[in-house]
Amino acid sequence: MNRQERYRGIIEWFSVNMPLAGSELKFKNPYELIVAVILSAQCTDKRVNIVTPPLFERYPDALSMSLSSGEEIFKLISSVTFPNNKSRHLLGMSKMLAEKYNSIVPDDPQELQKLPGVGRKTANVIASVIYNKPVIAVDTHVFRVARRIGLSEENDVLGVELDLTSAIPAHLRA
């Protein structure tokens, strides 16, 4: 079976078995999703979904979080992995959103990556889930599985992302 046939077979399987795959993270708006995705790095979605309700009650938007302190945020997210770094990233991200973007989460992955704590994968998740941009978020799991089942031979996340993007039709990526 060649690579194109593999892609076709996998796309067919997902079209039948998981036609409406979505995020396991609970969120109501772009701000909540970006916070949840930052918290989800090397942490389970289940844990993030436990932590975010009180966090969003205290900080319902980027402006309210931007006026907080890293210590206050830390107290609310202490049960996630790497809470020191994540509280610092959340504070920096919310300040930049409030000051530079008028508290509006950008829709462009390049702009999103300017925010503290937002790398390529997080930017692609936001762009895809919120703004229906035809991008693919490649994390360690997607990277490993894509290589294992022969969808890519690339040795880095960006290479796998480019392979998947070129082989999967745009309407299936958003």
Q: Could you describe the 3D structure shown?
A:
The chain has helices spanning 3-17, 30-40, 45-58, 62-66, 70-77, 83-100, 109-112, 120-129, 140-148, 157-167. The chain has 174 residues and is an all-alpha fold. The chain has two domains: 3-16 and 135-172, no CATH class; 30-129, Hypothetical protein, domain 2 (Endonuclease III, domain 1, Orthogonal Bundle). The mean pLDDT is 95.
Short description:
The protein has 174 residues and is mostly helical.
Give unreliable regions as ranges.
Answer: none
**Number of beta strands:** 0
How does the helix and strand content classify structurally?
Answer: mainly alpha
CATH architecture of the largest domain: Orthogonal Bundle
Tell me what portion of residues adopts beta-strand conformation. under 5%
How far apart the termini lie comes to: 27 Å
Q: Give the overall pLDDT as a whole number.
A: 95
Helix-strand pattern, N to C?
A: HHHHHHHHHH
The dominant shape is: elongated
Main pleated-sheet profile: none
Highest CATH level, the class of the largest domain: Mainly Alpha
Q: Write down the CATH topology of the largest domain.
A: Endonuclease III, domain 1
Compute the number of structural domains.
2
Topology summary:
Layout: H1 3-17, H2 30-40, H3 45-58, H4 62-66, H5 70-77, H6 83-100, H7 109-112, H8 120-129, H9 140-148, H10 157-167
Characteristic key phrases:
Endonuclease III, domain 1, mainly alpha, 0% strand, 174 residues
